[in-house]
Design goal:
It is built from 11 helices and 12 strands. It is α/β, with parallel strands linked by helices. The protein has one domain: Rossmann fold, CATH 3.40.50.
């Protein structure tokens, strides 16, 4: 082959390789199914806001009593795969903000995606890794992370104020350094939402996290001026219509205040007749995270 043709061939090969590498890098991660048929949402009663708002037909008799072997204490066996415990570790991370005890499931280095669950009042790191409560939904997120090369974290923290937020931020910082290519999503149950909003407001985590899931949680108007909001970090709300702790109407109003900001990426799922803990039991982890992965900054 003449020298000129060789150089042109080499250049074309390098360009093609570069395009292929860029395409592989830019391709959005999509979580593979895990028991999707069992965890599918019940029937849709209504939708609004161009599909961003959904009302689902939740029934305690079906969604708790028929799903659980012992209602609210132990789900039926088909909803779980406890083999995931083989990649589950109870760990301690020493940070400048304090020691952070946490449970890690999956890849602690080189993870494709990182999901944290922050418990509410009276909870602990153990709540977020319980295979059998909340209809087996924590077992599902554990398996989704383990089977997709991801990492799931469920930490303890001392309070729902600045100290607790600082420790969770330190945990995020540590694992983000171990998995620099991973998108990071934080799910907050009930009062844990206070930590979610504080993380969004911090310069470090607000500039690093890629999505927030508020499950039976609260609102915070300061989010609208936070670093995370400015990056258009997607936000998911799940709320029971009969939540007596955090009224659904107030969370819906907050959702609409976010949505009004140039079609901000946010979704709201209302579980009709559901109570305070319903969203933790019923959230479709895979569907929600796959949507967030397409919107994540």
């Amino acid at each position: 082959m003449p020298l000129g043709m060789s150089l042109r061939f080499l250049f074309a090969l390098l360009v093609a390789t570069g395009f292929a590498a860029h395409a592989a890098h830019s391709q959005t991660l999509s979580l593979k199914p895990f028991k999707d048929d069992l965890f599918a949402y019940p029937a849709t009663l209504s939708t609004g806001d161009n599909g961003a708002y959904t009302v689902l037909d939740y029934h305690e008799m079906r969604d708790i009593n028929q799903r659980d072997e012992l209602p609210e204490r132990r789900v039926r066996a088909q909803y779980t795969d406890p083999g995931v415990r083989k990649v589950q570790q109870d760990l301690m991370l020493r940070t400048d903000a304090g020691d952070v005890r946490h449970v890690a499931v999956g890849r602690t280095e080189g993870a494709s995606i990182i999901v944290l669950y922050l418990h509410g009042q009276g909870g602990s790191r153990k709540q977020g890794v319980d295979d059998f409560t909340f209809g087996g939904n924590f077992n599902r997120i554990k398996n989704l992370m383990a089977q997709n090369g991801g990492l799931y974290l469920s930490p303890d923290f001392p309070d729902f104020g600045d100290k607790g937020a600082a420790q969770v931020a330190a945990l995020i910082d540590h694992y983000a350094q171990q998995s620099p290519g991973a998108k990071i999503f934080v799910a907050c149950g009930s009062m844990g939402g206070m930590i979610c909003w504080k993380l969004a407001a911090r310069k470090d985590t607000g500039g690093r996290i890629n999505g927030l899931l508020l499950l039976g949680s609260l609102w915070d108007d300061s989010f609208l001026t936070s670093p995370a909001f400015k990056r258009r970090v997607p936000v998911f709300f799940g709320q029971g219509s009969h939540d007596v702790v955090f009224p659904v109407e107030k969370q819906e109003a907050f959702f609409h205040s976010i949505l009004a900001k140039k079609s901000y990426p946010t979704r709201f799922v209302r579980f009709e007749t559901g109570t305070h803990g319903t969203p933790i039991r019923m959230v479709d982890w895979r569907g929600t995270l796959n949507w967030m992965l397409t919107k994540a900054p």
